[in-house]
Each structure stands twice: as structure tokens, then as C-alpha cells.
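Homework help board

Subject: predicted structure for assignment chain

Our instructor gave us this sequence and asked us to write out the predicted structure in C-alpha cell form, then describe one feature. I got the C-alpha cells but I'm not sure how to describe them. Can anyone check?
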Amino acid sequence: MRLSPDEKIFWQHGFITINLTIVTTWLLMLVLVVGSWLITRRLKTGVQVSRWQGILEMLVTGMNDQIKEVGLKEPKKYVSFIGTIFLFIAMSNLATILPWYEPPTSSLSTTSALAICVFLAVPFYGIMESGIRGYLRSYLQPTFIMLPFNIIGEISRTIALAVRLFGNMMSGGLIVSILLTITPFIFPIIMSALGLLTGMVQAYIFSILATVYITAATEDGKETALKNK
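My C-alpha cell output:
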């Protein structure tokens, strides 16, 4: 029983390693890219649209509404980043219904990469909204003494994002694996269904937290820029 898909190595040369996490991650990205192309290649603006376009429109509309409710007034600027993160994590977790599959989100390397993406996106959107001076000055609020604490806060919440998602996904898979060895099949099936629900919840939580961090960066930067005018 593997604790992480990182342990399954297909090829290694020096420091370059191709493991199960990398393979499943690239397969998921390929599925998302091809699926997006197939769904969006024949979009229509009329009343009669395909079932897939209807699902896509509901998904994008729901994401925009959620982003707006968190506090970002122009969700179209952020839906490409936040929506991609949500879809990747959700697809990664939903694919656990496949018997051979191990989700890359149960690897700390994958969740760390996702958290680093959020870590880089926060200053990117903050600078885009309020300029580099306005954003950097937000680290000195309410006083310059808070600078090291604000920096530590940025780093610690990034670590928390990675560890939270990794811990939840790894523990869920581990529990199902243990139950398969000590109980009849019906109970692990129920646990697998609950695992799918948990996976969707984790995708939602990760995306919402990313949205909250971006909102805080853009709003704090704006307030600081206005105060210094």
C-alpha cells in the first residue's frame, strides 16, 4: 500500500524522475485541454445550444457568481485562474472511481505546486489592480512593524493550503485501502462515494481560499494606494 503516488517510479535518471504523480497530472491536463477544445469549438449564441454548452455555461456562471460573492467585482478577470484550479482538483478527485487510479492531489508535490501558483497569483493580481507601489505598501499596514509578520503570513498560508489538501486526500485514500482489507466490499464502496463528495468539497475550499487571498491583496492594495494619493 503506497502512501503517495510519488513512490511509483517509472523512469529515473539522476535528479530527473518520472513517477505516477507526474504521469497522472499530465494525463489529467491533457483530458482537460482536449475536453475544453471539444466543448468550445462549436459554441452558439442562439436559444438552441448543445447539452455540453449548457453545462459549460452553468459552470462558468456559477464560478463567476462565487467569485463575485467573495468580493471580486469583476470576476471575468479571475475566473480563468481560479476556475482552472477548481477543475483540475475536482477532476483529479473525481477520477478516483477508476480502480487503477491514484489522485495526484494525494501527493505533497502536487498540492505544493498548486499552493505556489496561488502564492504567485496573489501579488500578480494585487499589482495589476493597484500598481506595484500600492501593493507593496499594503505590507506596511497598519504600521511598518507588521512587515515581517505580513510576509510570514503569506508564506504560512501557502504551506497551509498545500498541507490541507494533501492531508485530506491522502487520508481519504488510505482509509478506503485499509477498509478494503478488513471489511466486506459494500462498506468501502460507501466510503468511496463519500470520498468523491469530500474531493469536490476540497476543490471548492481550495478555490474559495485562493479567491479570498486574491481579494484581500487587491482590496488592501487599492486602499493603500488611495490613502497615499
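Reply (TA_rk): Your C-alpha cells look well-formed. For the description, you could write something like this. The chain has a mean pLDDT of 81. That's the kind of observation they're looking for.
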